[in-house]
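name: query_chain
kind: protein
chains: 1
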Amino acid sequence: MPMIYKENIAQEIAQALLQVKAIKLNPQEPFQWASGILSPIYCDNRVTLSYPEIRAKIADAFKELIQDKFSKVSCIAGVATGGIAHGALLAERLNLPFIYVRSQSKGHGLQNQIEGRLNKEDRVVLVEDLVSSGMSSLRALKAVEQKCTVLGMVSIFNYGFQKAIDAFKEHDCLLYNLSDYLHLIDRAVLGGYVTQDQIEMLKSWRQNPKKWKT
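structure:
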């Protein structure tokens, strides 16, 4: 299971994401990801930026998490693109320097992958809006590790795929999540977003998304 920071925060964030439709559930007509995977859920945490109260709730939860678990942090890094705005909001609250990490180096100019001032003595926490397979998150992490010390990563939402859990464990990277898929399903049932008989289908998708069928 993904590492959740606090149970009450996980419930509140899941409820907020459903409330503003940052997460959409449609088991009957699944969404297709860029990878080709059919999914009964679509998560776009950028939507939360349009809602001051929700984006503040996320930033405050991140601030509490960082102060509790990563008190020695000296710089916040947003992972492009979804983690950039949330990371910048967090850095502002903590009064810390901010950088962001591209998926790959630019093909022009200085060809930077990391934008902003980063020093070798820095201790960085990366911010993600979403963790699915974990591969893009870990690529960003490895880019920063070449420059300085990485203390860990935080995310708004984690699908809880075993592949990602294993990858972060193998890389020995701490990853704390504000909420995850199972908390989302619980809140979705309570709020009437899905019916009781759809729960098992939603849970079975997470176990093997590549082979899942409606």
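note: The longest helix spans residues 52-69.
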